[in-house]
Description:
The strands form three sheets. Strands 8, 9, 10, 11, 12, 13, 14 and 15 form an eight-stranded mixed sheet that branches. The protein has a four-stranded antiparallel sheet with strand order 2-3-1-4, covered by helices on one side. The chain has a three-stranded mixed sheet with strand order 5-6-7. It is α/β, with parallel strands linked by helices. It has helices at about 10-25, 65-75, 95-100, 145-155, 170-180, 190-205, 235-240, 240-245, 265-270; strands spanning about 5-10, 30-35, 55-60, 85-90, 105-110, 110-115, 125-130, 160-165, 185, 210-215, 225-230, 245-260, 275, 280, 285-290. Helices cover about 25% and strands about 30% of the residues. The protein is elongated and about 70 Å long.
Amino acid sequence: xxxxxxxxxxxxxxxxxxxxxxxxxxxxxxxxxxxxxxxxxxxxxxxxxxxxxxxxxxxxxxxxxxxxxxxxxxxxxxxxxxxxxxxxxxxxxxxxxxxxxxxxxxxxxxxxxxxxxxxxxxxxxxxxxxxxxxxxxxxxxxxxxxxxxxxxxxxxxxxxxxxxxxxxxxxxxxxxxxxxxxxxxxxxxxxxxxxxxxxxxxxxxxxxxxxxxxxxxxxxxxxxxxxxxxxxxxxxxxxxxxxxxxxxxxxxxxxxxxxxxxxxxxxxxxxxxxxxxxxxxxxxxxxxxxxxx
Length: 293
């Protein structure tokens, strides 16, 4: 079905209040967009990160009376009569298909390719992971996933056991298995992530070597040669006592989902038990790796 878009330009400090006003005037959804097309990165815990110049965009049903919606918005103290806005008709699209068409095979490191399940692989001789992210996070397009995949590609995983803590789509665990790991264990709090990981493992022919657990189901004393956790800085700090015991002595740890400005705080939480490597950075994100003492 077609939609109508109403766009208001404001500043970050007023964006959320105007977003609420758009919802009250009949919008079915509201998004915030940088006026200058600057991407917004993952916010800090509890933070809504907005730009200095922000477009607040309300999406309305095509049958909505936009004159009435605008009249209601004119009563808002931040807007007033004749406030500046732009109304556009949006064409109807199959957004899932459009996303699929723009998701291309990607190379990480020397050997590894992540390939959408609906596209042909670019190199039959490479290590190819066929991925359908489904309802779970993890396609390789985000810098944190890219950092983790490149790290795994650079390791000798032959015969090793790998734990993917916060497995999402299963991309890291499956990549580890395709890179030579004998066994991988995926842990996630979201049942949809467990299902997506299972489906992707079957698609890649490694389901028999991938164990998947919700946190309350994981076995006691679980350990691995390599542990990777691509989540967020807050949980990485809070769960440090739990994550730190997962690698065996001399085992490797890889952490991401961390903004560069958060790296030192995460390092501090793990420094006592790990010999840490220099922090690797990609755009505003970073990866922290180390060896269990």
